[in-house]
Design goal:
305 residues, alpha/beta, D-Maltodextrin-Binding Protein, domain 2, two-stranded antiparallel ribbon, elongated, transcription regulation, transcription, LysR_HTH_N, DNA-binding, LysR family transcriptional regulator YeiE
Length: 305
């Protein structure tokens, strides 16, 4: 078993109380204190400052906690890989994603997972954010990734990454000649929008309201692919994820125009049913997913394709 004081230390930090850590680890309060004291003696530094109602990490404690989490995670991974030598993970995993993630990111995650767990059957479902959320609530999906906000108590939600939203315009559009556009430039434009229920549409609607943008006319399409084709054809302008426009921007089929101010971003979320029964396949998929949350690897692949 991995070093007990290490696990005790991480549990204390995450629960912010010695007593709660003791309950979870089935240890006495003095045992927990002894584990922390042993670590501090080995390291020759104070890790935790605590009082009767408050716990605070020292600077050394913050550093040690970061590495302790990595050690525990690697230990768990090593145990699983060793177990897989004699007992391969199998079964079926149902994974869902909203359109942007499902069409441009999920295939790479599934490919990585399939290479490591070849005996797991994977069924994928792609829809707009609200459709995928409902499928998770109905326990039809084991796990899903969405780009819109989730406000349901029966769903576990974890933020994975930040997605950049960009303004794309046809090459011949007047805005294509403006280096930096302002909210005034966006007034009374023709917009190409996603359908209601889409995370991208919710983002656009919220931005229009915040900036007081008047939409002269709009065309609504049910997928990111259709939106970018409509913009390329000159139908209007659109706010879209940079993920779906990589190839078109590289090929100069349309123009990305900078909006004044900070880059527009939104979170991508990992969601699953609150009381869903876990499995080795699901744990393996989540581990693979969390290992790729920097998405640098995925981004490079997307550009190269």
């Amino acid at each position: 078993m991995i070093n007990d004081p290490l696990k005790t230390f991480v549990t204390v930090v995450e629960h912010k109380k010695f007593s709660r850590a003791a309950e979870e680890l089935y240890l006495s309060h003095p045992d927990v204190s002894s584990h922390i004291q042993r670590l501090e003696e080995e390291l020759g530094t104070k890790l935790i400052n605590s009082s009767s109602n408050h716990l605070e990490l020292t600077q050394s404690g913050e550093i040690y906690y970061r590495y302790a989490k990595q050690i525990l995670r690697l230990h768990d991974k090593a145990e699983k890989e060793i177990m897989q030598l004699s007992n391969e993970v199998a079964g079926t995993l149902k994974v869902g994603a909203s359109y942007t993630i499902g069409e441009y990111i999920l295939p790479f995650v599934v490919a990585e997972f399939a290479a490591e767990y070849p005996k797991v059957e994977i069924e994928t479902s792609i829809g707009n954010t609200q459709q995928i959320i409902q499928a998770v609530r109905d326990n039809y999906l084991d796990i899903a990734l969405v780009e819109g906000e989730v406000h349901y108590s029966d769903i576990k939600v974890r933020q994975l990454m930040e997605d950049e939203i960009i303004l794309v315009v046809p090459n011949q559009h007047p805005l294509a000649r403006i280096p930096i556009v302002t909210s005034e430039h966006l007034q009374d434009q023709v917009w190409v929008l996603r359908e209601s229920g889409s995370g991208t549409r919710a983002f656009s609607d919220r931005l229009f309201e915040e900036w007081g943008i008047n939409v002269r006319k709009s065309y609504v399409f049910g997928s990111g692919q259709a939106v970018k084709q409509a913009v390329t054809a000159g139908l209007g302008i659109a706010l879209v994820s940079r993920w779906i426009m990589r190839k078109e921007l590289n090929a100069k089929e349309l123009k990305s125009t900078r909006i004044k101010g900070k880059p527009l971003t939104r979170p991508f979320y990992l969601i699953e049913p609150e009381n869903h029964e876990t499995s080795e396949a699901l744990e393996g998929f989540m581990e693979q997913l969390l290992a790729l949350t920097s998405w640098r690897k995925l981004g490079k692949r997307e550009i190269d394709i």
